[in-house]
Amino acid sequence: MTHAIRVHKVGGPDVLSYEPVEIGEPGPGEAKIRQEAIGLNFIDVYYRTGLYKAPSLPFIPGNEGAGIVISVGPGVSNIKPGDRVAYVALGAYAEERIVPADRLVIVPDGIDLKTAAAVMLKGMTAQYLLRRTFHVKKGDTILIHAAAGGVGLIAGQWAKHLGATVIGTASSPEKIELAKANGYDHVINYRTENFVERVKELTGGQGVDVVYDSVGKDTFPASLDVLKPFGMFVSFGQSSGSIPPFDIAILQQKGSLFATRPSLNQYTAKRHDLEAIAKDLFSVIESGVVSVHINQTYALKDAAKAHADLESRKTTGVSVLIP
């Protein structure tokens, strides 16, 4: 018998219940892993509150983790017992779990498993945002909201390495300094400054090529107002609430803009894309282009406190749960 966090009904952090569970053995195409660490993400909150619908109730939340393969089911050839692996798949808040083997990637020896667990979702998100959704290149000017968040800190370093001028927003002086230490050229305190006016000042009235927005309701439609003509608005989260329905004509009115709502699930649906995105992420970490600092660590049984801290914006960067 092992332990996991289960959600029997959607709601606040108090619905996260630490309890014994029976995991069983892997079936065809599956692997059983002993988890070393589990990543904490806002998407976990979305599932807990019901904003994102879980397949069934009760369910085990959590979307990324890393550990050691214990056993594999019939037909599995890409991994073997003893391998160090990481993944993005719902059901991570557990000491042990079963994962489809084709969703697992081998973690290079130069990366510890806590780091791997902390960056699989956030780091692969940063990869597809910067290298696939909008291909950031030297000379681009970009805006990333929530610059001191998990994706924000990784994306800031990576985008700076690619040669972009990187502007961010954050909510406190401490978070601003953290972002500046992680690749950002300019960071705007959105609580005390009008970020639209400030971006226009920083860009000489030109605006930015792309906005990466995981905040949602509080930054829309203002995010459209900082874009150059033909710029791209990339919505990849809604920590402040969902963006309300809008008239698509607003994109024409504000400069023939592009808008997209991408998802990591689609970008990694094919095995070769998952491997390529993970390989690119691991390479920038191993080379030192991206430094990952785990700023908060919680015991798995304290997941409710971790969620409360995340929602109240007490956390910065990446956080992990330890079984």
Summarize the structure.
This protein has 323 residues and is α/β, with parallel strands linked by helices. Helices cover 28% and strands 27% of the residues.
What can you tell me about this protein's structure?
One of its GO terms (molecular function) is quinone reductase (NADPH) activity. It comes from Phyllobacterium leguminum. The protein is globular and about 60 Å long. It has helices spanning 42-49, 113-133, 150-161, 173-180, 195-202, 249-253, 264-267, 271-286, 303-311, and strands at residues 2-7, 16-21, 30-39, 64-72, 84-88, 96-100, 104-106, 141-144, 165-170, 186-189, 208-213, 227-235, 258-260, 294-299, 318-322. The mean pLDDT is 96. The strands form three sheets. Strands 3, 4, 5, 6, 7, 14 and 15 form a seven-stranded mixed β-sheet that branches. The chain starts with a strand and ends with a strand. The longest helix has 21 residues, at 113-133. With 323 residues, it is an alpha/beta fold.
